[in-house]
Amino acid sequence: MPLLPRLLRLVRQEASSIYCRRRCLTTMSSGKRLRVLVDMDGVIADFEGGFLKKYRARYPNDPFITLEDRRGFWVSTQYGQLRSDLCEKAISIWESKNFFIELEPLPGGVEAVKEMAQMENTDVFICTSPIKHYHHCPYEKYAWVEKHLGPDFLEQIILTRDKTVVTGDILIDDKPDILGVEPNPTWEHVLFTACHNKHLPPCTSHRRLLSWADDWRGVLDSKRG
Fold first, then answer.
1. Is residue 177 among the annotated active site residues?
2. How far apart are the C-alpha atoms of 189 and 203, rounded to whole Å?
3. Fewest CB atoms within 10 Å of the CB: 88, 93, 157, 169?
4. Whole-number Å distance between alpha carbons of 208 and 39
5. Under a CB-based contact definition with an 8 Å cutoff, are residues 49 and 104 in contact?
6. Which candidate in 39, 169, 173, 174 is catalytic?
7. Active site residue 152
8. Which residue has the higher pLDDT, 141 or 18?
């Protein structure tokens, strides 16, 4: 079946699927189930590297910011500070067709997510925020997951602009500050190190994963209780 009809079917099934999972959580007797939310861009998909490659190809005569010099979560903000017109040029890159589907996986990320999904009493979801220019992004995020994690993982995708309303035990995300309508999310935010946040000083409010070579298994085990 083509991907688009399958996506429509998945959307229709989402409410009942979440309900069933919650029922399963309450009836399991073999131990506490752990729900892990894994961000996509900057955590398992190389957004920064993909952006820089396509930006330099499209605008070869414009200044650019190396990955080593990236500061702050919003790429467009830093480019706008470099030169005012570069903000919109930066945005045009990730609004373009094939940007998200062509992102390379970050080292170890796909393997880690697959291993998590096989762990006993562990539910893993890709929890990702689509951009507001939605013509290509949502479809391509689903296609990326199918390509790299397999078709079964299409059931494990949560697209939301507000991650604070999603229930989980852990959220692995590269964004330092995740805000929304819920002031006290159920999950612990584990900051995934990226080029734009690696300069930030240690913060007592959340733990870090330096990469997927770091002890992510220990982080999960610490939440099982």
1. no
2. 11
3. 88
4. 14
5. yes
6. 39
7. no
8. 141
